[in-house]
Design brief:
The chain is built from 22 helices and no strands. It is mainly alpha-helical. Among the domains are: 183 residues, no CATH class; 75 residues, no CATH class; 89 residues. Helix 11 packs parallel to helix 15 and helix 19 packs antiparallel against helix 20. The longest helix has 30 residues. One of its GO terms (cellular component) is cytoskeleton. Its main location: cytoplasm.
């Protein structure tokens, strides 16, 4: 690497880099790109001093697409001799001009410079002096095409970078030169350690961009794999923003939660907690330039977002346990519970030994800190009330943490979602509770937190959310009524207080189901002939439960009872008639439809007998 550039070239290049690093807000308000344009002018002067690029290269033209830049296109060779060194320096300048134009939102010009950079480097792409620059140019083209929403093109560039890194590490392996070194005298060249650090950072960026591209392409498995690799490498090379790293790890946990991989999800969330705790405690570096804790609103928002990921973890794990152990009417099946207990040891043996090694973040003290958080949280499905309560309390802790930031004033939708999750935690906990009175109290807590939201919300602006809350409150009252009926059935002679309570709960459930159904009406208060697909199942369920509720009203007035039976029949008949004219609806409520047909058949006979009895008296 003799033939160092002259002092004038070196000085202009270093000055251009310094101007490129100036943050936009430090420029005059009316000239936000002043420093960028200054850097561009210097880079163009450097290019002129280096002289024109050779025009007799026996390689593809500069406007070839990414498919022509595959690794097999021509045999790579070392960049030796003054001519090759000049080409490399021209490529470095083209790269920086490309990034410069992209930074000033001149994407087409930026693309031209980056493609020219690749064209100049192609014969030497696998050499010590070129590989890092080649990968960086392809990474930037990948980002550029991704921003244009040309995702396949972006993917091609980024996968080419990944393949080139792998090939270089396999065939050569020694730390390559950083692009800036082509403009440094020999005595200022970087150490092997610093070269390695910079090259690995380039590759980490490549994996990070690939993760985003795969996510955009809905290749979620692959996106999660690359996201995990990126996070792991950032820790290994100590190159991360604690806040950004923590939120990315927490987001990755949601992928694992959806896949029901709770050990992996727990690990991501535990790591997120530990790394988030580093904010303001670790010294600033090139990769963590500002103290993130100095932005209090962003700090509290990210803390709230991580808390919401923990809530989903607790809730989904409990709900998965419920699905595994419930019978056909949604109650605890003791046989299924026993089977899952027998499987637990096998799950522990397999998962602890195999899966834990696959997802581990960090080493040494960091690994120990993450493990300390993990050990306090279960990842196996809870099989009884005590185990479920443990998860419930953890989820409730994070509900309080999330609500500190996501308050009703300013974050209406987020606040409501957190409250709905809190309600869902109580609902699923009630499944594990054997005592019916305590189950009633859990549903009462749900109603107490949901009903105030109906006062705060304007249905005109929050129609979908209003419907969700109305339906959920109705269902909570419905469940409470069923529990009170079950309690009364166990008593020889239920007193008037219990009867009054059952009717009160019935009335409240009817009120909220009716509010939900009324929200489906048009401005003229007419119920739709065709119910939208998004509300079809809840609408049919509401109709079914209204029918059942009218049949459950306890009254000593025969005339009133007959009216209730007639209203009940009317709603059952609506379900049957609607499903006959809309066959797609039948698939949404198969069980309820069969019961509705049965009631449409039985109720008229029951009502006739009732009328005959009334006539006799």
């Amino acid at each position: 690497m003799a033939n160092a550039p002259g002092p004038e070239i070196r000085e202009k290049f270093q000055a251009a880099l310094a101007l490129s690093r100036v943050e936009l807000h430090k420029n005059p308000e009316k000239e936000p790109y002043k420093s960028k344009y200054g850097a561009r002018a210097l880079l163009e002067e450097v290019r002129a001093l280096l002289g024109p690029a050779p025009e007799d290269e026996d390689e593809p033209a500069a406007d070839d697409g990414p498919g022509d830049q595959a690794l097999g296109a021509g045999e790579p060779r070392e960049a030796e001799g003054p001519g090759a060194q000049r080409v490399l320096r021209l490529a470095v300048v083209e790269f920086h001009l490309g990034v410069n134009h992209i930074d000033t939102e001149e994407l087409s010009a930026g693309e031209e410079h980056l493609v020219r950079c690749l064209s100049l480097l192609r014969p030497y792409r696998l050499s010590l002096g070129c590989v890092s620059l080649y990968i960086q140019a392809q990474n930037n083209l990948g980002i550029l095409w991704s921003e244009r929403e040309e995702i396949e093109t972006a993917r091609t560039y980024l996968e080419s970078s990944e393949a080139l890194y792998s090939q270089y590490m396999k065939e050569i392996g020694s730390p390559p030169l950083d692009p800036t070194e082509h403009f440094l005298p020999e005595e200022e060249k970087l150490t092997e350690q610093e070269r390695s650090k910079r090259f690995e950072k380039v590759y980490t960026h490549n994996l990070y961009y690939l993760a985003q591209v795969y996510q955009h392409m809905e290749m979620f498995e692959k996106a999660a794999h690359y996201c995990h690799s990126t996070l792991k490498r950032q820790l290994e090379h100590n190159a991360y923003h604690p806040m950004e790293w923590a939120i990315n790890a927490a987001t990755l946990s949601q992928f694992y939660i959806n896949k029901l991989c709770f050990m992996e999800a727990r690990h991501c969330l535990s790591a997120a907690n530990v790394i988030f705790g580093q904010i303001g405690k670790i010294p600033a570096t090139e990769d963590t330039p500002e103290v993130e804790g100095d932005v209090p609103e962003l700090y509290h928002q990210r803390k709230g977002e991580i808390a919401r990921c923990w809530i989903k973890y607790c809730l989904t794990l409990m709900q998965n346990a419920q699905l595994s152990m419930q019978d056909n009417i949604g109650e605890l099946d003791l046989d299924k519970q026993s089977e899952l207990r027998a499987l637990r040891k096998k799950e522990l043996d397999e998962e602890e030994s195999v899966r834990k090694r696959a997802v581990q973040f960090g080493t040494g003290e960091l690994c120990d800190a993450i493990s300390a958080v993990e050990e306090k949280v279960r990842y196996l499905r809870p099989l009884d009330f005590e185990e479920a309560r443990e998860l419930f309390l953890l989820g409730q802790h994070y509900v309080c943490e999330a609500k500190e930031f996501f308050q009703i004033d300013g974050y209406v939708t987020d606040h409501i979602e957190v409250v709905q999750d809190h309600s869902a935690l109580f609902k699923v906990l009630s499944f594990f509770e054997a005592d019916m009175e305590r189950r009633c109290k859990m549903h009462k807590r749900r109603i107490a937190m949901l009903e105030p939201l109906t006062v705060d919300l304007n249905p005109q602006y929050y129609l979908l959310v209003s419907r969700q809350i109305q339906f959920e409150i109705a269902h909570a009252y419905y469940d409470m009524m069923d529990l009170k009926v079950a309690i009364a059935d166990k008593l020889r002679d239920p007193d008037s207080h219990i009867v009054k309570k059952i009717n009160s709960l019935n009335k409240s459930a009817l009120k909220y189901y009716q509010l939900f159904l009324d929200s489906l009406r048009d401005p003229n208060k007419v119920f739709p002939e065709h119910i939208g697909e998004d509300v079809l199942r809840p609408a049919m369920l509401a109709k079914f439960r209204v029918a059942r509720l009218y049949g459950k009203i306890i009254t000593a007035d025969p005339k009133k009872e007959l009216e209730n039976l007639a209203t009940s029949l009317e709603h059952y008949k609506f379900i049957v008639d609607y499903c006959e004219t809309h066959p797609e609806a039948a698939q949404e409520i198969e069980v309820e439809l069969e019961l509705s047909k049965e009631m449409v058949s039985l109720l008229p006979t029951k009502m006739e007998r009732f009328r005959a009895k009334m006539a006799l008296t």
